[in-house]
Write a structure and sequence with these properties.
The complex is a heterodimer of chains A (188) and B (556). Chain A is mainly α and 188 residues long. Chain A has 2 domains: 36 residues; 142 residues, no CATH class. Chain A has 6 helices and 5 strands. In chain A, helix 4 packs antiparallel against helix 5. The longest helix of chain A is centred in the N-terminal third of the chain and has 33 residues. The radius of gyration of chain A is 22 Å and the shape is extended. Chain B is 64% helix and 2% strand. In chain B, the strands form 2 sheets. In chain B, strands 1-2 form a two-stranded antiparallel ribbon. The chains are: A mainly alpha (188), B mainly alpha (556). Chains A and B meet through helix 1, strand 2, helix 3, strand 3 and helix 6 of A and helix 1, helix 2, helix 3, helix 6 and helix 7 of B.
Chain lengths: 188, 556
């Protein structure tokens, strides 16, 4: 045991310096130099103040905006969280039915599944393309805009599956809402 | 289209694994003079002669002492983080039981998370504590894996190698370069890598939000490559900061399986009989695809109680059901444990497949190094069963498998049922432990079963509704993580030591070949009969009961 003590302690400390300090600090330096926007959290600023991150969902409830997916953590990021409710949990089934009714009342359309289920992170920045399209009429009405033009703007902000094979077509809620504000300002 | 996606993914994985195995063999056999020279300097400074062979007891002792040193340092760091630098968000000390659980968890390559990173860890703890163990616990597993391969395949009395040299080489020349590449790619995709603290933002509609950040990309790279799985943020790779895009998802998913796949081919190369490696790869591959098919089917079909469409509760829109299924099967088959969707909300039989992958001992690719030595355990039992059937002394790779090896294999195998069934049974009978259950009905039982399967298998993923922070569980789970790791490592090294002292005989007409479809079939059956049947009764009480109730339209 004692013969192993010296290498155990020396290598533990050595690797702490190498992999615990040098490695993350070097990656920090490189990432800050190469990709500063992403490395600092893909933050979006308006008039010098941070209004959010392109990658983190925030609450939208006004009729003129795309609404994000339900969040078990109330769009709070510290800590992030999911419902973790099991598939046979009556509370889950009831809250999904409730969200479905609210969605239909609000949009006059049937709710796609992602609009009524809570995301894994509680911070899902995206909604399905189908979900975004179903909200277009409501948004156009609130902004006195042409529904077809709003649909076109949403389509422009849709990310297609990678190589046409991996992932689902999704729309980033915050970025699309900012584009909506720029193109069709909300009536005061 | 789905089929094309999967075929392309697994073809890429296999090609990368084949390439990496060639590199790994050169590294572990010190065949690259420039790298070997650097190793020598590092090891000399630690008082180690890298050419000095260890017998199995010395090798096992070195692993244990090294992991103990890592545990002590990490525990101290977690308890003292409040007084140390690199703590911009002013996070205080972890409680003793949680620090014990966390330190064990990272030293044993489990990365079970009873804490939430953004709320309970300083940047120093994340970097100098967790990231370091992400590297060296993985390197420890890889070193043991290579030592076991040497015992099985090397010449008589050629030794198991030198733990310090193997561990150092795995870290410096395999894990570190791959991590640098992956970390930079992830940072480019949008994973934060900064020492600045959380950002306070005021949203478009005026909602206040605190956006946590940190040096995440560097840690996430090694968490995947080293089959560690402990996330920088609480929701792990479902967090848009840990896994922002489909490209980052695929890169991480490939990284989870990469080194375990390469280990199959490394085994074949070191045995100087590549067919042996392909046989193990085929066995693991068939089991993975079979499990993945079940998960994919149920997740894409969805939950009729929630409405039409895939089962999107606890999943991210950008990944959808397919990439969430692929990840879930990969992360539980390999003992990674990171998640990009919440397993607790998966359909009952999908959840069961994930549990079975862990309960059979993390041998479907498994952890780096540990997956291969775990499968070699089943190989010993498979040739023993074949030997019983034909009435000959069993042999594997030309060496006789005798009572000592089979006994040790059974001892190692028993660690799984002891950790899951015995300690798990205690956990569902103690009132102070039952409080951790979130869901009513059979799903609640599954939460406990999943937790103890994950901890004993050193996986680290969870049914997240389970209240892992209760002191009863932080302690019991800490103990079964130790059991699951070292009650495998020590007997496996003993088997390797025992085999390495035997003469390697050539194959004769009576030798049962261990590379053809017949052996692959026998090995799959051994895994399923021994592994899965041990846990069938307990699975019947959890996921199977839940599925039966669900099919009858019942909820809880």
């Amino acid at each position: 045991m004692l013969t192993h003590l010296r290498p155990a302690i020396t290598l533990t400390l050595g690797f702490t310096l190498l992999t615990g300090l040098a490695y993350p600090l070097a990656i920090t330096g490189a990432a800050q130099a190469l990709f500063p926007a992403q490395a600092n959290g893909s933050l979006i600023e308006s008039d010098g103040t941070v209004i959010g991150s392109a990658l983190i969902a925030q609450s939208f409830t006004q009729a003129g905006y795309l609404h994000p997916r339900p969040s078990a953590s109330g769009y709070g990021a510290t800590p992030s969280g999911a419902s973790n409710l099991g598939p046979t949990n009556a509370a889950l089934i009831a809250s999904v039915a409730e969200r479905r009714a609210a969605y239909t009342a609000e949009n006059g359309a049937d709710a796609p599944i992602d609009a009524v289920t809570a995301s894994a992170s509680g911070l899902d920045p995206d909604i399905s393309a189908e979900n975004a399209a179903a909200q277009a009429t409501r948004i156009a009405t609130a902004r006195n805009a042409d529904p077809a033009a709003v649909q076109a703007l949403i389509a422009k902000h849709t990310t297609a599956p990678l190589l046409g094979l991996y992932g689902e077509p999704v729309v980033n809620v915050l970025q699309t809402n900012l584009a909506l504000d720029a193109a069709y300002p909300l009536p005061k | 289209m789905t089929l094309v996606s999967y075929v392309l993914y697994f073809a890429t994985l296999t090609a990368l694994g084949l390439g990496l195995a060639v590199w790994m063999q050169r590294v572990f056999e010190a065949r690259i003079p420039a790298l070997a020279a650097i190793d020598r300097v590092v090891l000399r400074s630690a008082g180690v002669d890298p050419d000095r062979q260890m017998n199995w007891t010395a090798y096992a002792m070195a692993v244990l002492v090294f992991n103990l040193a890592g545990f002590v340092l990490l525990y101290a760091l977690l308890r003292l983080q409040g007084y140390l630098p690199l703590n911009p968000d002013g996070i205080g000390a972890m409680s003793p039981d949680l620090a014990f659980n966390t330190a064990i968890s990272f030293v044993t390559n489990t990365n079970w998370q009873a804490y939430s990173g953004e709320a309970q860890l300083s940047y120093l703890s994340q970097m100098a504590g967790l990231t370091v163990q992400n590297f060296v616990s993985a390197a420890s597993g890889m070193a043991v894996g290579v030592a076991v391969i040497r015992g099985f395949t090397g010449a008589k009395d050629s030794g198991l190698g030198n733990f310090w040299a193997d561990m150092t080489r795995a870290t410096l020349w395999i894990l570190l370069p791959l991590s640098i590449l992956l970390a930079l790619f992830l940072a480019q995709q949008g994973v934060p890598q900064t020492l600045m603290g959380a950002v306070h933002s005021t949203g478009v509609e005026g909602a206040q939000q605190i956006i946590p950040r940190g040096p995440a990309a560097a840690q996430i790279a090694i968490k995947q490559l080293g089959t560690n799985g402990g996330g920088f943020f609480g929701v792990n790779s479902a967090h848009p900061f840990e896994n922002p895009t489909v490209a980052s998802d695929l890169a991480q998913c490939l990284s989870i399986l990469l080194i375990p796949v390469a280990f199959c081919f490394l085994f074949g190369a070191m045995a100087r009989d590549r067919r042996q490696g392909w046989a193990i790869f085929a066995t693991m591959g068939i089991l993975l695809l079979a499990g993945l098919a079940v998960v994919h089917f149920y997740e894409v079909a969805g939950n009729p109680s929630l409405g039409l469409g895939a089962n999107m509760e606890g999943k991210e829109a950008r990944f959808g059901a397919m990439l969430s299924s692929l990840w879930a099967a990969s992360t539980t088959a390999a003992s990674n444990g990171s998640v990009n969707a919440m397993h607790d909300s998966f359909m009952p039989l999908s959840g069961m497949v994930l549990m079975v992958f862990m309960q059979i001992g993390e041998v479907v690719f498994g952890g780096v190094g540990s997956g291969l030595y775990g499968m070699l355990l089943y190989c010993i039992i498979a040739v023993f069963l074949a030997g019983l059937m034909v009435g000959r002394t069993p042999e594997y790779l030309g060496r006789k498998i005798e009572a000592r090896e089979v006994t040790l294999a059974v001892v190692a195998f028993l660690s799984m049922p002891v950790g899951i069934l015995v300690v798990g049974a205690l956990a569902v009978t103690m009132p102070s432990a039952v409080a951790a259950i979130q869901d009513p009905g059979p799903h609640g039982f599954s939460e406990v079963l999943y937790a103890y399967s994950s901890a004993t298998g050193n996986n680290g993923s969870a049914f997240g509704g389970f209240g892992a922070g209760l002191p009863w569980h932080t302690t019991a789970i800490g103990l079964v993580m130790i059991l699951g790791r070292y009650a495998m490592i020590v007997p496996l090294l003993a088997i390797a030591g025992s085999l390495s002292r035997k003469t390697r005989a050539g194959a004769t007409a009576g030798t049962f070949p261990t590379h053809g479809p017949l052996f692959v079939t026998l090995l799959i059956l051994t895994v399923l009969i021994l592994g899965a049947l041990t846990f069938f009764p307990v699975l019947a009480l959890g996921p199977i009961a839940e599925e039966t109730a669900r099919a009858a339209g019942q909820s809880f």
